[in-house]
Amino acid sequence: MRVVMIGTGYVGLVSGACFADFGHEVNCVDKDATKIDALKNGKMPIYEPGLDTLVESNVKAGRLSFTTEAADAIKNADVVFIAVGTPARRGDGHADLSYVYAASEELAAHLDGYTVIVTKSTVPVGTGDEVEAIIEKTRPDAEFDVVSNPEFLREGAAISDFKRPDRIVVGAHSERAFGSMQELYRPLYLNETPLVKTERRTAELIKYAGNAFLAVKISFINEISDLCDAVGANVQQVAKGIGLDNRIGSKFLHAGPGYGGSCFPKDTLALSKTAHEYGKPVTIVDTVIDVNRKRKEAMVTRIVDACGGSVDGKTIAILGLTFKPNTDDMRDSPSLVIIEGLQKLGAKIRAYDPEGMEEAKHMLENVEFCEGSYHCMETADAAVIVTEWDEFRALDLDRLATTLSSPILIDLRNIYPLEEVKALDYHSIGRPVSG
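The structure corresponding to this sequence follows.
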């Protein structure tokens, strides 16, 4: 099939490359000429493991191309995806749909023959109706269907998630559209991937409801970890004990400094705003948003306490800046709140992240960015693990103890077994020091 992907951000680029790898002819369109030129030269605008190789192989095979000119690509397309950004709107927190609507109006002018228009961007309930209305107004003669096909890609594992998904959700109003989407995803039928066929509004809500539920699980175990600290219980054992219940599951039950990234913060907020707009508030989600905000702030207090009650004039080594490992995404990362909070209390910050430092330099001030883990910890008064990158999981603890000016390690991801860190002044989350 001939596929056009409007937007070459995280979702558009990964999806476009994967569809091309399925054997489809994919043309990725973006207005940013600099980004398109970089992609043509094999330079990725994001860090995602394996993406550069996937793009390179499909470009060489002639199945994947990049352009700033949408007209010819859309004219010949069977399916056009809208995969542009939907950031939280400043002022009220609603999803900003201006890019989606602009793309809808622009693509309408170039439609030629029956075309399936797919919203891949995360959009509030009813957005597909508006996209349909925009296209009908712009091109009353056009033959098309609008489909909702939300993405469920985890940063750092996006290619695997796309090719081996838990499910594919397709919201449409015609069997013809469903047929086109089934053909598009036909390579996954061998994996017996469930295809969930729904109405369009239902598909739009599935995406928000899924992310909100995961955010609830994260915030729940974070609050349980605080209770564990108070009563002397071990949150990792609690999580294992409840996670073995198939009704609950073990995923997203890892205590930490709070969630961040491009999805959970904006999607929970957008769902909350939509629910209030319809007079049906989702109070659990409202609470989770507040709990997560306070969680990040509480990490500052936890670090200060571990440093003896004050960080004024002290140097703190921050290991990990991105909101999760295997990405360069700094959006809403806990590290931003933690670093700014420590700086306000007089701390000097040294930081290291395997992939996120270039992005971090645009978002943080007065931070010394370092060349590696041990360089970051040299003469620091304490080290804080904020992101659980693999290279932080096997630090030489003896070397760490002598590199730091005092052997204080604050592990906000609980990646070290308690029996391995007895020689350090070690602090973790929701685990008694005695083990």
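The chain has two domains: 2-198, 211-427.
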